[in-house]
Every structure is written in C-alpha cells, then in structure tokens.
Amino acid sequence: MVLKRVLRYFNIAVGALLAAALLGTYWFAWRPLPKTSGTIEAPIAQRAVVLRDALGVPHITAGSIEDALFTQGFVTAQDRLWQMDILRRAAAGQLAEVLGADALEADRQARRFRLHRIAEAQQAALPAADRTALAAYTRGVNFFLEAHRGRLPVEFAILRYDPRPWSGVDSLLVGLYMFRLLSSTWEYEIQKSALLAGGDAAKVDFLFPVRAGAEPPPGSNAWALAGSRTATGKPLLASDPHLEYSLPGIWYAVHLQAPGLNVAGVSLPGVPCVIIGHNERIAWGMTNLMFDVQDLYREKLDLQTGRYLYRGQMEQARLEREHIRVRGAAPVELGQWVTRHGPVSPYALRWTAADTSGYGFPFLDLNRARDWQAFRAALSRFAGPPQNFVYADRDGNIGYQAAGRLPIRKSYRGDVPVDGSSGNYEWEGYIPFEELPGSYNPAAGLVVTANQNPFPTDYLYRVSGSFAPPYRSRQIHTLLSARKGWRAEEMLAIQKDVYSAFLHFLAREAAAAHRAPGDAVAVLREWNGQMDKDQAAPLVATLLYQHLRKAIVEKASPGKGLAYNFEIAPAVVEKLLRERPKDWFADYDQLLVTAFADAVEEGKRIQGPDVRKWSYGRYNQLVIPHPVLSRLPLIGKYFKIGPVPQSGSGTSVKQVTPRWAPSMRMVVDFSNFDQSWLNVSTGQSGQPLSSHFKDQWEAHYEGRSFPMQFEKVQAESTLTLMPGQ
To answer: Quick check: pTM over 0.70?
Structure first.
C-alpha cells in the first residue's frame, strides 16, 4: 500500500516535471518562432510580401527599395536577432554586460580598436542615400523587436536580458566586426619583431615574403568562367569565402525585389542589402585581398600626461575613457591615449578603418549595378576590408577588381613596428582605385582568386600583406583550364577539391630522403596528395610540415620555433627545399629525416603505434557549439555540431582547419538563374526549434548544394505586410 502511494507520488512528480519542461519549451523556445504566414500590419508605405522557400529563405517583394530593406531587417530579426545582438556587442566590447566576467578580456581587446566610435563617425559621414538605406533596415529590425517583447529568442531568456533597439551604428558595427576579422595584420608585425630579436635578420626576412613567385594572374575562393569555357555558352561564377565556423553561420540568404532592385544572395545579419550574390544582370563573388592595412608605431609618449614627440615637436594625445559593464560586478574603467597614429596599447595602431573621411555604404549601388562600369563605380566607394571581387554578367563578360583603401608606403614596408616620433613612416594617401589590380574579359576566359598576391611584380606601389600561398589558386586554375564545357553543378566538385600540392610535394621529398624501410615512409610513398579524412598519409604529411617549419624557424631565430605562423609559410618551406641554400642547412635530407622522425613520434602519441591505422579526420576534427545552448545541462549536446572528421587542409581548394572552412558556397549560372546553387553552412535560422536551424549542414559537409531560386520561387509559406502603423 505504501509502495503504491510512493509510486503514485513519484509518477505525479515526474508528470509535473515533464509538463513543466514542455511548458517551458513551448514558452521560451516555441513561442518565439517567427510568423511566416498570414498578414500583419507594418509601418511601410506599400504592401510587401515575403515568400519563404523550403529552406526558409525569404523572397521579399516590396513597392519601394526602402520597404524592401525594412522587410529585410524584419525577417532577419525574425531568424537571427540574438546573433545580431551578439555581433554588435562583440564589435563594441559589450559582451561582459550580458555574459559576465569571462568576456571581460574580449571586451578590453575590442574597445582598444574603438569600433563604436568609428561606427559613429562612419554614420555621420554617410551620404544621405546610404543613411536612408540603413534607416529603413533599422526600422524593420526595431518593428520586430518591439512587437515581440516578451517572446524573443530563447537566448535572451536564458541570459535574462532584453536587447536595446537597433540603430544604424549597430549595422556599421557588424561591418566593422568583419573588418577586424579580415584585416588584423598587426599581429604579424609583432610576430616578426619577436623573431628579429636575437635572430638572423636576413633569414627572418626570408620567412615573410609578400609573394611565392608562382602566383597565377588574378582572374576564400572565387572564380568566373567565360561562355567559351561552359557547356551553355553563358558565364558561370562561383564563390565560397572561408571564415570561422559558428552556429548559426555568418551568412543569411535573402532575395530582394522592388522597383529598380532584384537581387539574391547572402547578407550579413544586421546589415542591409546583399553582400555576395547576383541580380538580373550581373553576379559577383569576394575573397579577402590580404593587403596590409594596419601599422604599429612606437610612440615616445608620457603615459601620465599624454604628451608625445613627433618630428621634434611635442603633441598632446587624446585620453579616451570608457566603462565596461560587467554582469554581476562593478564596471571596469578602461582608458587609452590616442595619438595621431591611433590608440596606444602599447603600440599606436594606425588602421584604414579609422579613416572615415568620404565613407560610404556601396552595397545598394552594387546590388543595382547593371554592367561592368556600374559595378566598378560602386566598388570605387568601398572602404571596407580590402577585397578581391570576381564579376560576370548576362552579356557574357567576366572580370576581376581589387577594392578597398590600400595605404601608400614609400619609405618602409610596414612589416614591423616603426618609430612614430620621427615622422618618416607615414602613409602618403591610398592607392587610387583606377590603379588597383583588375582585368576584364581576359583572353584565357577565366579569372581566379584564392587570396593569392594579385599585384604584378613591377607594380608602381609597394605591396605589403599576408597573402596566401598559391596552391589553392593554382589548383583551381589548373582544373578549370584542363577542359571546356563546364556546367554549374561541376563547380561544386572544384569547391570541395582536397588535393594539396604542397603536402604532396613535401611527402615526396621526405620519402626520397628517408631510405630506411617503414610503414610511415611507405604511407607517404603511396599517397596521392588527397587530404582525405579516412587516410593516414595526410596526418603524417601535416605533422611533418609542422616539425619542419619549426626547425626552419629555429634556424632563423633560435628558441622561437613556435612563434611563426605566417599565411605564406608553406611556400617558404617549399622554396627552401627546392633551392636548398647552403647558408640555411648543410644537409637538407637530414633535416627532412629528423623532422619526419619527430612527426611520427608525435603521431604515435596521439593515435597509436600502427601508422596505417591513423586517421587524418580524427586529427582534423570540427566542433561547432552554439555559444549559449550548447552549455545547457543534459540537452546541450543537441545544440552543437560535431565532433566530425574533415577532409581538406589549409592548402587545398576546400580549405579547412578546426576553426576555418567555406562559410557558404554559391554558383551562378547565367544560362538559367534557377539552375544556380547556394548553400549556407548550417541553416537560415538561429532559432533552436526551427526546422531551419541546421538543415543545410549535412549538404554543406558533404559538398552538396540547393537550387538558388530566383525567377521561379516555390513558396512554402507567404507572409504579407500591409501598411497600417
């Protein structure tokens, strides 16, 4: 009798807990899901319609461009509001306010870049038309925010805070977040300076070239094929920029239609317009140009008074004080001096992002461009992180254009911190847009960019940067040049190509130098250079490279073998092994044998004694956790991706590491836009109970894609916004 009563109470308790869990799930995670069907009243001038396809991509049709951008802001907030809030906070240094003291150091670092102040200055400098576009998007975000107070995405409930209203400054902050991510070359100046201290200057300099000497001409991967190389006789354009993984991913697909505007592609959550995509006439892709747009200065500065020396005269630095709010703790004060070169911490940082003179937001012009001339006119206003833009149009033209503000350095290279007091290391303006690298309808019928150095050897201006080695661009160029008759779907096979010419070369060199038998050597001899997750050889070659690079750096700067991680390092290693200069090593075969032995020993420590059972994929694993939900007890594992093994490497077309990978893949087919392809990395939605939270991940992982609907949209739902508020 007592047992029955206990069991009854237990069942009641379990039922109550289950009911409470279901109610909590409904209240905090199901209720915030976006309304995607029906009609709502909105503060717009004319009716707007949002068709969502099977992937949740919104196809917006509005009566004006302003209403289209308003609606873009609204639907983006429906799917990605918490991500938008975190991006603006990460840029401005306001994470600790909601995440606590663990985020304080990240906030300190962010505040030193002064991004919020820069964003405010950018907004003040915007032309009226650009400001209008930002304002329309902002109104859409805030319309969603105010209409959904009390049923916002679950992250706000878990962290117990409400987001402040959106602003144009916040959109610019998201852009500056990307600017910082793509242009932090100051770290290489610190790295090289450290190696020079006690190192051989000539050898250290050898480790930091701006070109490998084998870059193909310019046409994150992007390429365009002329109709002469395609099966349809119309151009193809492909783009797959490489960025850090996140859940949700950084891109949000959208299609905008209004009088004078019909554009589809991917946008940044929090930023209006399409960043990469196509309209009815043209298409474009982007990769990071990798040009150096930051310099460090050693200032002769009195930290007490802010007085510093410049060209024999004393100047007064400006003291900027800020208070970082910390959840559960007192605010932390941060003060820094700002000289004519920039904020001092401990070097003064000069950065093109801080120059807001003539600043503009060119993406609406880019979205509406109809030809090569209008495309370049829009890019001439681009002041973001320097980028390679690849172009194609409906008339059969293809092209390439570098864009962004590139400093002119006449008296120095900008590769190490310089004396700020002398006045001898100043920028002399920016390279004129008309003189930046570009090409239009090249004779080869293709343009390719994969972060390689696109500047000719006799370029008029000094070139500085952390350019990628040429392996990816050369492999793409080789594959595309091998034949004609390419089709859109075949571009996906190139985007997921995992051959590493560099590591294949390194494997052959090590195998030739290592004459003794053994499984590890045999694995390298048998290998075809494919960075396949299920093979052992890619792991052997990767570890070999790491130990070989360390030995080379030790030769240049003793004791600092782990302090070097420059983008073009693989090409440096290959150059040494091909040329074998005597002033570096007397016996390169012995260098290879020693590095190989160290690599095998490390491999045995991490994957066991049997080399043939090693798996590159177990080493090159990927985990993408949701920053909040993955930490929940019991259920957190459902809100992350991985661990999953990855094929590919830093020197293969499919460029992957445990942090970086293709952030989206797009292929545009000018013979029929509806035969184009688009795949974002995880899914359209940041809402964890949405069916689009990570419904694209499997295809992304396997290198498949989805039709990029444009002219014929197959709607799964229809939401109508009617004027009324």
So the answer is: yes
C-beta of residue 201 within 8 angstroms of C-beta of residue 208: no
Q: Is the torsion defined by CA of 213, 218, 221, 226 positive or negative?
A: negative
Residue with structure tokens 């930290």? 303
Can you tell me the distance from the alpha carbon of 277 to that of 392, in angstroms, rounded to the nearest whole number?
11
Complete DSSP assignment for 143-205: HHHHHTTTS--HHHHHHT--PPPP-HHHHHHHHHHHHHHHH-THHHHHHHHHHHTTS-HHHHH
Q: What does the pLDDT look like over 317-359, one tens digit per residue?
A: 999 999 999 999 999 999 999 999 999 999 999 999 999 998 9
Distance CA 443, CA 609 (A): 53
Residue environment code for 315-339, b if the CB has 16+ CB neighbours within 10 A, otherwise e: eebeeeebebebbeeeebebebbbb
Task: Tell me what pLDDT residue 14 has.
Answer: 46
What does the alpha-carbon distance between residue 504 and residue 501 come to, in Å, rounded to a whole number? 5
* Cβ count within 10 A of residue 714: 11
pLDDT tens digits, one per residue of 445-467? 999 998 898 999 999 999 999 99
Any residues with CB less than 8 A from the CB of 476 and at least 6 apart, and which?
Answer: 221, 223, 448, 450, 494, 497, 653
Structure tokens at 376: 């370049």
Instruction: Tell me what pLDDT residue 33 has.
Output: 81
**What are the b/e assignments for 477-500, b being 16+ CB within 10 Å?**
bebbeeeeebebebbbebbbbbbb
Q: How far is CA 60 from CA 253, 256, 634, 683, in A?
A: 11, 5, 39, 18
With beta carbons less than 8 A apart as the criterion, state whether 295 and 285 touch. Answer: no
Low-confidence ranges of the chain (pLDDT < 70): 1-32, 211-219, 516, 725
Q: Whole-angstrom Cα distance, residue 527 to residue 542?
A: 13
- b/e string for 190-210 if b means 16 or more Cβ within 10 A? ebbebbbeebbeebbbbbbbb
The structure tokens listed for 648 are 């590919």
